[in-house]
Design goal:
Low-confidence stretches: none
Number of helices: 17
Shape: globular
CATH class of the largest domain: Alpha Beta
Number of strands: 17
Structural class: alpha/beta
Distance between the termini: 50 Å
Mean pLDDT: 90
Largest sheet: 5 strands, parallel
Radius of gyration: 22 Å
Bound molecules: iron/sulfur cluster
Length: 485
């Protein structure tokens, strides 16, 4: 027996073929997938090492049966003013999960629904809206093979989106990489331009004067190095402006491609997991929110202003730093035990298909949210299966390699504003993913990561004194290096 699914890690969206012979499973890259054409990076190749139940797997609700737990959550919601409740969802969740989370928030009157994609993607969303009038990604991976120059800025594509980088290396394009330090991508590019932290805007504005940019078919690729920086929205718009000024837009091999970090970050953008009140960072940096429901993300690990809440509810498949803090922990199914859709960086809708039954009492996120919605008396949450949700969503799945966008220059702010604060760069490793809640379960990946496990990389412009008293230790749950205290 053999079937197809999609890798749950990054926004590349690689197709996977899983075959079963008796109880043995075999995983390979899907040769028919237009995204990866059979290729998988090491994280995708080792996915089967991360499934099953280990001692950290969450198998049942932490405070009793599902009935007791759901009633308890409904009571807590009823006892809390609606503007003090927030849902913090994730780009790990499937389209159907996010649709139900949004439907629940809208039905119950919760304005504070945000995705962890806020941290990486929302500057791109804002820039796209300013440039194109909508959050449009006008190009696709096909353009990699049609470009003469590939301009990579703020993206260590070789380590963070390896299969996209494989496509880049297979293309005949001249590859230019801009970053603040010599990444793997920089080493493998034809030209590496090292910039001081915060000085990239001047370089972007100068692109129309560069020989390898003007009069060439250029595809620009970026990720969090651009979008998690100061003036991020302006930088993305400056990049789009450079393409418009050189007529490098709306043609094959030309345009700007943002690489999304999580498998369904793009899907969340489409569904609109975006606050009507506080942003995700404000959930943590202000005291307004009293009851927070976190789904499939680990803010205790990743959110700089992480704080305690009166009631913290967490849905996840495994123990994390955040579940450790939670009042109620709900066992959610991981990718191998639930089905639905994701949307990748080039806007394709891709299927994830369950190949294992839910372990213990765990449930897909959409089912958990529906249980709480029904306990609160909300209509419209009686779904028997995930297909019914997909039908209700009625998404037009037509895909085209290129979307025509307006060619209107966007005015950007003053260039080269340098903020006099200390700067810390974070990065993704080729052999691990985010907080390592899943990849940390792979023996192969851990062995490959071991040599870097005590390494914390600090940019040379950062005041190293800030860290001199910090003891670097491995986080108990993720085994990720972190500062103590
Ligand atoms: S490139 Fe991303 S989607 Fe593809 S196998 Fe690797 S982690 Fe999975």
């Amino acid at each position: 027996m053999s079937f197809k699914t999609t890798c749950p890690y990054c926004g590349v969206g690689c197709g996977i073929q899983i075959s079963r012979s008796g109880s043995a499973l075999k995983l390979t890259g899907d040769k028919d997938s237009p995204v990866n054409r059979g290729m998988l990076c090491i994280k995708g190749q080792t996915l089967l090492e991360t499934i099953g139940t280990d001692s950290q797997r969450l198998l049942r609700p932490s405070i009793g049966s599902w009935d007791v737990t759901v009633k308890n959550i409904a009571n807590k919601f009823k006892a809390t003013e609606k503007d003090r409740i927030a849902l913090y969802v994730s780009g790990q969740m499937l389209m159907e999960d996010l649709y139900i989370a949004k439907k629940f928030a809208d039905s119950y009157g919760i304005k504070n629904l945000e995705s962890n994609s806020r941290l990486c993607m929302y500057s791109t969303v804002a820039a796209n809206n300013r440039a194109y009038g909508a959050d449009i990604v006008p190009v696709s991976y096909d353009d990699i093979y049609l470009a003469e120059t590939i301009f990579i800025i703020g993206s260590n594509t070789a380590d963070c989106h390896p299969i996209v980088f494989n496509h880049i290396k297979k293309s005949k394009a001249f590859v230019v990489c801009v970053d603040v330090y010599e990444t793997t991508t920089a080493k493998k590019s034809d030209l590496f331009i090292q910039v001081e932290q915060g000085r990239d805007m001047a370089l972007i504005n100068d692109l129309p004067n560069q020989e390898w940019f003007k009069n060439k078919k250029v595809l620009s690729i970026y990720s969090q190095g651009l979008t998690q920086s100061t003036d991020a929205t302006d930088k993305v718009n400056a990049l789009i402006n450079a393409h418009i000024l050189t007529q490098n837009i709306n043609k094959p091999g030309c345009g700007v491609l943002s690489l999304t970090g999580q498998c369904n970050a793009m899907g969340g953008r489409e569904i609109g997991t975006k606050t009507k009140d506080l942003t995700a960072t404000e959930f943590f940096s202000t005291s307004q929110i009293k009851t927070l429901w976190v789904m499939s993300t680990n803010p205790a690990h990743s959110m700089i202003n992480y704080r305690k809440f009166d009631t913290l509810i967490v849905s996840d498949f495994t123990q994390t730093l955040t579940t450790k803090d939670a009042d109620i922990v709900l066992p959610a199914c991981p990718w191998s035990e639930k089905s639905g859709h994701i949307k990748n960086s080039e806007r394709r809708y891709l299927e994830q298909n369950a190949f294992l039954p839910p372990a213990g009492e765990s449930k897909p996120d959409w089912q958990i949210i529906c249980l709480v919605a029904k306990a609160l008396g909300l209509p419209g949450f009686d779904f028997d299966n995930v297909e019914q949700i997909w039908q209700e969503m009625a998404i037009d799945q037509t895909w085209s390699a290129r979307i025509k966008v307006p060619e209107v220059l966007v005015e950007i702010g003053p260039i080269d504003r340098i903020y006099k604060h200390n700067v810390v760069n974070n990065a993704r490793l080729l052999t691990q993913w985010h907080g390592m809640t899943r990849t940390g379960k792979s023996k192969t990946l851990n062995k490959m990561t071991k040599k870097n496990s005590k390494m914390v990389s600090i940019h040379h412009t950062t005041n190293a004194d800030l860290f001199k008293d910090k003891e670097v230790e491995l986080d108990k749950y993720s085994k990720q290096p972190c500062f103590k205290g």
